[in-house]
Amino acid sequence: MSEAPAEPRKPEGPPRIPGTRAVRPKNAATVMIIRRDGPKPRVLMGRRHGGHSFMPDRWVFPGGRIDRADYHAPYVSDLRPDVAAVFDAYLKPGRGRALALAAIRETWEEAGLLLARPGPARPAAGPWRTFIEQGALADLAALDVVARAITPPMVGKRFDTWFLLAYAERLMSLERQPDCGELEEIAWVDFDEAQALPLPSVTRMMITESVARMKDPSRPKPFLRFQAGGMRPAHL
Question: Could you tell me the pTM of the whole model?
Answer without folding.
Answer: 0.85
